[in-house]
Amino acid sequence: MSKTASQTSQIGSVLITVATEQYGVSSLKNDYHKTPEGQLIKEDRSASHSSLSQFFRSVFLPQGYPESVSNDYAEYQMWDTIQAFASSISNTLATHSLLQGMGVGDEAATVLAATFTWLLKNGTSMMGSIIFAWMKGNQLDCDAKRWRLFADFLNDFSISLEIMAPLAGTYFRWVVCFAGVCKSLVGVAGGATRAALTQHQARRNNMADVSAKDGSQETLVNLGALICSLGLLPLVSGQLVLTGLLFVMMTTLHLFANYRAVKAVRMESLNLARFHLIMNNYFSLGRVPPVDTVNAEEPVFWTLKPHWTIDIGMSFNSIETSFDNLREVYGAISSKYLLDFNRQTQKVTVVLSPEATMTDQLQACMQAELIIFVIDHSGHAVSSDLSEWISRQWLSDNHTSMLLQSFDQAKGLFPTFLHEMEQQGWRTDLCLLGTDEWRTTWDFSDLANASNRKNV
Predict the structure, then answer these.
(1) Are residues 242 and 141 part of one domain?
(2) Residue 132 sits in a domain of what CATH number?
(3) Predicted confidence (pLDDT) at residue 279 exceeds the cutoff of 50
(4) Which secondary-structure segment (H or E) carries 41?
(5) Residue 59 belongs to a domain
(6) 64 lies in a domain?
(7) pLDDT digits (tens, 9 = 90+) for 6-62
(8) Of 223, 238, 264, which residue constitutes the final position of a domain?
(9) Separate counts of helices (H) and strands (E) for the chain
(10) What are phi and psi of 187, to 5 degrees?
(11) What count of other Cβ atoms lies within 10 Å of the Cβ of residue 287?
(12) Mean pLDDT calculated for residue range 381-390
């Protein structure tokens, strides 16, 4: 079936092209021609360098790249590669210091003492990872960017402890154990958020392939860092100042690269931070901002500044307003959630019905953001759709009125808002709002009827 290109060119004037093919978006291309005798001839039209480049693509990139991954994949992986190299060098310095502190090369040190320290370090690390996963596991999906950056900062902090541990003298063992606990948190937070980011990057249900190729890239980087470390260790061994200087350089590069990697991610899913930015823009300008704009503005650090929190899926007992006020608001309307807020604690509480869907949760968040916007943005520019309603709310401090009217306003705006969200590329079916598991069934209508009968 297949003949050479020279054979093809000799009889090219009488050939009929019957098929062409291309491997993805690569430069691997073939044409198939039919001769007058009925033979099929394959003509290889691939670029001269295509075989080598295709080999490296198949080894280190997911199949179908770049169509099979998100648009931010290349930029993220570039910065992730840089941070992995810097982190590997830093870890080599830490391992060198740890082994030195445990007595490697010291004739006075005992194997039993070193083994005991190593086991104690591993044991405390295991306990730390279990406790952290229990306490914060449900938050890692919601704030993958923040927790990824947190893991990187904590990783560098733990490495610095390991490097300085030999200076701790009799406290060496405890410093090492504390560093081990920190690294265990890094393992949980870093591994979980990496999985969340991999899920975002995989666009053909190819999460396993994306994850495997990410591992191959990191292994190659670590191999390069290992070769560099073999040359660096003899230079820094016993040189505390030089070791510290190299560690500071690698740490600075590591943190900068991680920050750029996290900022490069453009997630279409919704979390509370991205939803807050969307709603502020929507209430101010009357339009939904695009995915890239919101992700560029999304904060990746936690702040100590007091701010509103929205807690969804909470227990009925967490509502702070009086029961009569709650019945007044929700007794006459059909809603699959109950919402309450507290100005002093800057907290919005949402109680969900068992029938509440993701759409109901988004509407509850929209109502919550509307209340927060009214309270915090007095005098600021607002969209024409909301200007008259908000101006009335600024003059009112009635808690019940605010709940009732914000519900009506959110319900009216929500269908149009949802349509605009989908037009801008946001995924309203995948929302990571940190929703808890409480579901409540209520019926205020019977209580209202009973109250009316009592008054009669």
Answers:
(1) yes
(2) 1.20.1250
(3) yes
(4) strand 40-44
(5) no
(6) no
(7) 444 444 457 888 888 877 776 778 888 888 877 888 887 777 666 777 788 889 999
(8) 264
(9) 15, 8
(10) -60, -45
(11) 13
(12) 61
Query: What is the DSSP code string of 325-388?
Result: HHHHHHSSS--SEEEEEETTTTEEEEEE-TT--HHHHHHHHHHHHHHHHHHH-TTS---HHHHH
In a domain, 62, yes or no: no
Picking from 39, 40, 49, 46, the residue whose alpha carbon sits closest to that of residue 19 is 40
What is the residue type of 136?
Answer: K
Statement to judge: residues 10 and 157 lie in one domain:
no
E strand map for 209-312: 270-271, 309-312
* Averaged pLDDT for residues 158-174: 86
Residues 103 and 218 in one domain: yes
Check whether residue 427 and residue 374 sit in a common domain.
Answer: yes
User: How many folded domains does the chain comprise?
Assistant: 3
388 CB-near residues (< 8 Å, 6+ apart): none
- 12: domain CATH number is 2.40.50
Nearest to 63 by CA among 216, 177, 182: 216
Cα–Cα dist 308/365, whole Å: 12
Query: Where among 235, 264, 293 does a domain terminate?
Result: 264
Burial class (CB in 10 A: 0-12, 13-18, 19+), 447: middle
Q: Tokens for 204?
A: 């053909």
Q: Which residues contact 226 (CB under 8 A, 6 or more apart)?
A: 88, 92
Residue 97's domain spans which residues? 73-264
- Helix (H) / strand (E) element for 249: namely helix 240-264
Residue type, 194: R
> What separation in angstroms does the CA of 209 have from each of 55, 108, 138, 201, 357?
16, 50, 25, 11, 32
What share of the chain in percent tops pLDDT 70?
Answer: 86
**Same domain, yes or no: 35 and 14:** yes
Which helix or strand (DSSP H or E) is residue 342 part of?
strand 337-342
Whole-prediction pTM? 0.84
Same domain, 158 and 191: yes
Judge whether 28 lies within some domain: yes
Token pair 């290889």 is found at 44
147 and 219 housed in the same domain: yes
Indicate if 203 and 280 belong to the same structural domain: no
Nearest to 142 by CA among 274, 307, 281: 274
CA distance 350 to 308: 13
Distance CA 369, CA 59 (A): 47
Q: For 114-163, what is each residue's pLDDT tens digit? A: 677 778 888 888 999 999 999 888 889 899 999 999 999 999 999 999 88
CA distance 257 to 284: 34
Lowest mean pLDDT among 264-278, 393-407, 430-444: 393-407
Mean pLDDT (the chain, rounded): 85
